[in-house]
Design brief:
Layout: H1 3-32, E1 41-54, H2 60-63, E2 75-85, E3 94-107, E4 111-124, E5 127-133, E6 161-171, E7 179-189, E8 196-210, E9 216-232, H3 244-252, H4 262-266, E10 271-284, E11 287-297, E12 314-322, E13 330-337, E14 347-348, E15 351-352, E16 370-371, E17 374-375, E18 399-410, E19 413-424, E20 436-449, E21 455-466, E22 472-486
Antiparallel strand pairs: 1-2, 1-22, 2-3, 3-4, 4-5, 5-6, 6-7, 7-8, 8-9, 9-10, 10-11, 11-12, 12-13, 13-18, 14-15, 16-17, 18-19, 19-20, 20-21, 21-22
Length: 487
């Protein structure tokens, strides 16, 4: 059997009946691991959330970048139960971890109960392997205050995957820690079945970081994702079963064969997106200043960052964090622009220009770069769930956004405030004089109470103003209980 079919069969089994089997494996691993002298720690949390708002949707920042756990409906409530074990013992040659979480949610339009995360992971020396679906974050953006990375933004539900590689930055031998790398390869499967069934995911990435413990550190990262395979749901598209030869074409970004669509024969097989990013961190006393730049490309020719055809497009950010002034521990500003798209023409008169990128959309994949109707990349490229005509892919991917963030702690209360201001032009066939303004505001405060068994209470306020999403006002309340189990 071809290697790629083997991987695909694993993903199919995972999406159908893996839930029960993985728990059996977890129990075996947990019990067998007790032969070690060290004890293992399992973390758990229970989150109860209620949201109410006025308007057509819940305010943008009350439901975005939550891995799809919060409904976009004006009113909703949810219960999330999570158990996880991380790599606990650095002295072990082989260590393992796992995670499992279930979500029960009711909203004004629907009710759902589903498994949110379910994965096993193992580490041998510095090498990692993961099987399952879990919350992940890629890119070089600020983890707390960013509006989200260009390619990955924590906006959509996890995708079942098989991953192998070096997940965390690891020092290159004989460099004394001044040069570090991370990277890996993923094979996954979209399980939303919106527009097509059995769409596959290819993702590989490589990062290099220089500087180590020096006060100046430079980082470059390269990411390549591709959607491929699949069988049409709303169309008559029927694609042959994926083969290892197809996988090689996906890996290399090569054109499709005679059995591929005309688009895939002219361009490349599947829907490909390349992300390149740079980051520079500087330590000055108790302050860390981070600057970063992200770009994406959806067409050839592939050029190094700074030389791409869509040079005006990208995500630029600067963050400042400090350790000595908790009242304002973090500040951030980001600029996102996607209005250039490498020019208006992809091809004209038989000549391929590589323009008209129309980010996150693709005719052969109706849902585009989204999962369960939420964009996987930056949420400012509007998720399909907002489409009033019930279209499956994003219809607003030409945007210009200014995003601000601040966070800190006052007498034990942690707070975070976000403000985003955008001009939204629709798609690449935009009218520069016809755009929709939108502004979204967010304020969150939470506090942990050790005397109440580490119960944490949180309150978030959200406001939207403008023509894109309408005027929405809302509040959400969260109660979280966290703890540890010893094995």
């Amino acid at each position: 059997m071809h290697f790629i079919l083997f991987l695909n069969n694993i993903m199919i089994k995972f999406s159908r009946n893996f839930s029960f089997k993985i728990f059996i494996v977890l129990l075996i691993l947990i019990q067998s691991n007790r032969i070690y002298s060290q004890t293992d720690t399992i973390h758990y949390n229970v989150d109860l959330m209620g949201l109410t708002s006025k308007g057509k949707y819940a305010p943008f920042w009350l439901h975005s970048r939550q891995y799809g756990t919060v409904s976009a409906s004006p009113s909703s409530a949810s219960l999330l139960l999570n158990f996880s074990k991380n790599f606990d013992h650095k002295d072990r040659l082989l260590d393992y971890g796992f995670g499992a979480s279930g979500l029960a949610r009711t909203a004004s339009d629907t009710s759902q109960v589903y498994i949110h995360e379910l994965y096993l992971k193992a580490r041998l020396l510095v090498f990692d392997m993961v099987l399952g679906m879990r919350e992940e974050q890629y890119g070089n953006q600020d983890e707390s205050l960013s509006g989200g990375g260009f390619l990955f933004s924590r906006n959509a539900r996890p995708i079942p995957k098989i991953f192998a590689g070096i997940e965390n930055f690891t020092a290159i031998p004989f460099t004394y820690g001044y040069a570090e790398i991370r990277g890996g390869i993923t094979h996954g499967k979209f399980i939303d079945n919106i527009g097509q069934k059995n769409v596959l995911l290819h993702h590989k990435f490589a990062y290099l970081r220089l500087g180590g413990k020096l006060p100046v550190r430079l980082q470059y990262g390269f990411e390549h994702v591709a959607q491929w395979g699949g069988t049409g749901v709303i169309s008559s598209i029927v694609k042959p079963s994926p083969t290892f030869r197809d996988f090689i074409k996906i890996f290399m970004g090569s054109s499709g064969g005679e059995d591929a669509s005309i688009s895939d024969q002219i361009n490349v097989l599947g829907n490909h997106i390349i992300n390149q990013n740079l980051r520079l961190d500087v330590d000055i006393n108790d302050f860390t200043i981070g600057t970063y730049w992200q770009v994406v490309n959806e067409d050839k020719p592939l050029r190094i960052i700074g030389k791409t055809m869509n040079l005006p497009d990208g995500l630029w950010g600067i963050s400042i964090h400090n350790k000595s002034f908790p009242y304002v521990s973090g500040l951030l500003y980001e600029l996102l622009n996607t209005t250039d798209m490498s020019g208006p023409f992809h091809d004209k008169d038989g000549i391929i220009y590589g323009g008209g990128d129309s980010y996150f959309t693709n005719g052969d994949f109706p849902g585009g770069w989204s999962h369960f109707s939420r964009t996987i990349g930056t949420p400012f490229i509007t998720s399909p769930l907002y489409n009033e005509n019930h279209g499956l892919s994003t219809q607003n991917n030409s945007v210009r956004v200014h995003h601000f963030g601040v966070e800190g702690e006052v007498i034990g209360f942690r707070y975070k405030a976000l403000a985003s201001f955008s001009k939204n032009y629709g798609n690449y066939a935009k009218d520069a004089n016809n755009f929709k303004r939108n502004s979204s505001y967010f304020f969150d405060v939470n506090k942990q109470f050790p005397s109440l068994s580490n119960v944490e209470l949180g309150c978030s306020l959200g406001v939207d103003r403008g023509e894109l999403m309408g005027n929405n006002y809302g509040v959400s309340l969260t109660v979280r209980k966290t703890g540890f189990l010893k094995w």
